[in-house]
Amino acid sequence: MENRIKDAQKMARRLIGSYMGVKPNEEVFIVVDPATDMIMPKALAQAVIECGAEYTIGIMPDRADGEKATTCTEVVAAGVLLYVPATLTVLPALLLKS
Between 72 and 38, whose confidence is greater? Predict the structure, then answer.
């Protein structure tokens, strides 16, 4: 468990600080679904704080059968400028691409 937390923190700092370039006083909306392991969202939130910004974590409803897990509700989609699936299995692949 300890390694998963450290890995999540490292990825979150890289994603929030380097790739997204979050600046002080900005606001970041982290969206998860009820099945999300909260290690990564909490790590993202901590990285946001370290950048001097504020965060909000929102939990969207479960997706219907056959609907992609990446499908956001309309209200979430309206406020999202960048969607990053926040799972420990997807993030390493995203970070390696950059």
Answer: 38
